[in-house]
């Protein structure tokens, strides 16, 4: 259910684009994002910062797309989001001396452990700092690459190709990066009991 909610605006964007056009799809994306924020708030009593940031980007660039009837604004959305994520990893690592990939990864692993073994269960996992540094760098480069690749596809291919790339290509490439991360840390995960 959570995964469906996370991707609902994107799914609706794709469906409306295929049946109507990019401007209606962009409007639906904005409305679905508002509904998504409302659901997150009702579910947990707060809305995570990343959801606010993604919504504001969708609202501003989507609003400009609809207002000016120019699809190039919405095409920039993925580039802005991926560039901000890459910049966040860079700044947090080299200015604040924090590895956000390590923090996120261990947080996810602990959440999985709690769901499988009950609350209070602590996952005994240590990933060498050098591996975490490599992963942080890999994700910085990956996110920067994706932000540039999105613009390349947007300006060198048809609107249909870009929409398909945004929905399926970006998701597929991100899945491969997650898979590479899991392969890299697999030997450091504890054995199943």
Report on this model:
By secondary structure, the chain is mainly alpha-helical. It is built from 7 helices and no strands.
Number of domain modules: 2
| Percent helix | over 70%
Shape: globular
Average pLDDT number = 88
Beta-strand segment tally: 0
Secondary-structure element string: HHHHHHH
Oligomer: single chain
Largest sheet: none
- What is the structural class? mainly alpha
Straight-line distance between termini: 28 Å
Summed up, the helix count is 7
Cα-atom Rg, whole angstroms?
18 Å
Percent of residues in β-strands: under 5%
Which stretches are poorly predicted, pLDDT < 50 over at least 5 residues?
none
Subcellular location: Cell inner membrane
Main location: membrane
Protein name: Inner membrane-spanning protein YciB
Pfam families: IspA
List keywords for this structure.
0% strand; membrane; 81% helix; globular; mainly alpha; YciB; 193 residues
In short:
Helices cover 81% and strands 0% of the residues. With 193 residues, the protein is mainly alpha-helical. It holds the Pfam family IspA.
Layout: helices, strands, pairs:
Blueprint: H1 2-19, H2 22-44, H3 49-68, H4 72-94, H5 100-117, H6 129-156, H7 159-185
Helix pairs in contact: 1-2, 2-3, 3-4, 4-6, 6-7
């Amino acid at each position: 259910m959570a995964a469906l909610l996370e991707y609902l605006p994107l799914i609706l964007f794709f469906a409306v684009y295929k049946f109507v056009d990019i401007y209606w799809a962009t409007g639906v994306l904005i409305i679905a994002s508002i509904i998504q924020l409302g659901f997150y708030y009702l579910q947990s009593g707060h809305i995570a910062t990343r959801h606010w940031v993604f919504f504001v980007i969708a609202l501003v660039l989507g609003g400009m797309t609809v207002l000016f009837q120019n699809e190039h604004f919405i095409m920039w959305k993925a580039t802005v989001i991926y560039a901000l994520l890459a910049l966040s990893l860079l700044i947090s690592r080299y200015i604040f001396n924090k590895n956000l990939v390590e923090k996120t990864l261990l947080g996810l692993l602990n959440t999985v452990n709690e769901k499988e073994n009950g609350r209070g269960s602590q996952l005994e996992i240590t990933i060498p700092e050098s591996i975490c540094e490599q992963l942080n760098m890999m994700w910085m480069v990956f996110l920067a690459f994706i932000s540039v690749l999105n613009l390349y596809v947007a300006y060198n291919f048809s609107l249909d190709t870009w929409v398909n790339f945004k929905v399926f290509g970006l998701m597929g490439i991100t899945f491969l990066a997650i898979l590479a991360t899991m392969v890299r840390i697999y030997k450091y995960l504890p054995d199943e009991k």
